[in-house]
Amino acid sequence: MTNNNTIRELKLHSPAGVEPAVFTWxxxxxxxxxxxxxxxxGDEIVRTIRLVFEDYPELYxxxxxxxxxxxxxxxxxxxxxDKFNKIIDTHxxxxxxxxxxxxxxxxxxxxxxxxxxxxxxYSRAVTNPDKLRDYEPFSPSVYGxxxxxxxxxxxxxxxxxxxxxFIDLGSGVGNVVLHVAALxxxxxxxxxxxxxxxxxxxxxxxxxxxxxxxxxxxxHSEFQxxxxxxxxxxxxxxxxxxxxxxxxxxxxxGSTVNHELKVKFMNMKDGAKIISSREFCSESFRLNDRTxxxxxxxxxVTKPEECFGKVSWSDKSVQYYLHVIDHxxxxxxxxxxxxxxxxxxxxx
Length: 348
Fold this sequence. Notes:
- The protein has 348 residues and is of the alpha/beta class.
- The protein folds into 2 domains: 8-104, 434 Repressor (Amino-terminal Domain), CATH 1.10.260.60; 142-333, 3-Layer(aba) Sandwich (Rossmann fold).
- 40% of the residues lie in helices and 14% in strands.
- It is built from 11 helices and 11 strands.
- It has helices at 28-32, 43-55, 74-95, 99-104, 111-125, 148-158, 175-183, 196-216, 236-242, 255-265, 328-346; strands at residues 8-12, 21-25, 165-169, 188-193, 222-227, 245-248, 273-276, 299-302, 308-309, 318-319, 321-325.
- A hairpin with an 8-residue loop joins β1 and β2 (21-25).
- α5 crosses α8 (196-216) and α6 crosses α7 (175-183).
């Protein structure tokens, strides 16, 4: 007889032919008391197998019976894993080394598969989500997450290309960075987080993400998650200067932090974009002699419909703002001023 407290493991072999994924079979009583459980019993295993078959429809076999599987029975789940592993082992043995097999490893995950991967990553890396809620209310340390649906919409709007870079200022546990790295064909994604708890979890998130992307055989952009202060980091000024897109949940950053960011953004290149939950310059900004040294003098700001969506720190949807750097705006202003002065001099 098996002791209820015995930790048992189930394994799923990788369709990419790498090391297997190990699933710890939960103690049912303990699981019922877990507040932030994402998966119940064998639910994660069934979802994982289903998504592999969606990615490799030629591997699906009727006798797997995913819809009829008892996710609460260890023995039934063990049978399911054994059937799946035999199918995968045969697939890898027959196809490894072929052009088709190698080409699959260059493909990116679908949005649906990535959502599942992110849930797997989060459930393993963030071992105590309550710690993320331990902050001083209304301080720059407030932790919040942007919904995947909103990030999907933002990615469609900014349309990153393979030579571009993306920076997340205040990246938390790294959800946005991993989202962009998984689904966007960009050169590099960088996230920096000041607070120790989310930054520690972000490191674990990165490791888990790399494992699962490798297990599914999916390509992702290079990324880095780092703990630090984006205002004082020695490499930050250069990174901001070269960035193509900067993302900032700056709603609770405070006026001092936002002002210092505005100073840094003045040196961004033309065409670079900033997406933020609070605008860095008003849509009604007017360029004149008094405002010519403000960030608004070198950028355009809009409120795209695509940038309106759910966030974790509010029960209401939040509007994000799109800023586009354009130094010619200021150059045209000076040219106009010069023409007016020249015209004025001639009439005297």
